[in-house]
Amino acid sequence: MAWLVLVISGVLETVWAIALDRSSGFTRPGPTAVFGAALLLSMAGLGYALRTIPVGTGYAVWVGIGAIGTALTGMIALNEPASLPRILCLLLVLTGVIGLKYFH
C-alpha cells in the first residue's frame, strides 16, 4: 500500500509543479488552488509512505516520478523541446526509480 501511495504522491508532485507554473506567481486563483491542494496531498502521501519505506528510497522515488511527469507534461502539453538526449535522460531517471524500488 505504501508504494501505491508513494506513486500517487509522485504524480501529485507533477500536478502541483505544473499548477505552480500556471499560477503566474500566485496571481491566478484557479491554478493557485490546484497547486495548494496537490501540494498538501502529495506531502501527506509522502509522509504516509515514509512510515514503511526508508526516507532515502521514498524521497528519491517521489522526486523521480515528479520530475519525469513534469518533464513529460512539458514536452507533450506545453510545447517544450523533446529532444533525444532529454528523453534518454528521463529514461535514466526512470531506470533509477525502478532500481530503487527493486533493490529496496
Automatic annotation (TrEMBL):
GO terms for cellular component: plasma membrane. It holds the Pfam family Multi_Drug_Res. It comes from the Bacteria. InterPro entries: EmrE-like, Small_drug/metabolite_transptr, Small_multidrug_res. One of its GO terms (molecular function) is transmembrane transporter activity. It is found in: Cell membrane. Its main location: membrane. The chain crosses the membrane at residues 33-50, 59-78, 84-103. It is a multi-pass membrane protein. Belongs to the drug/metabolite transporter (DMT) superfamily. Small multidrug resistance (SMR) (TC 2.A.7.1) family. This is Quaternary ammonium compound-resistance protein SugE. It comes from Actinoplanes derwentensis.
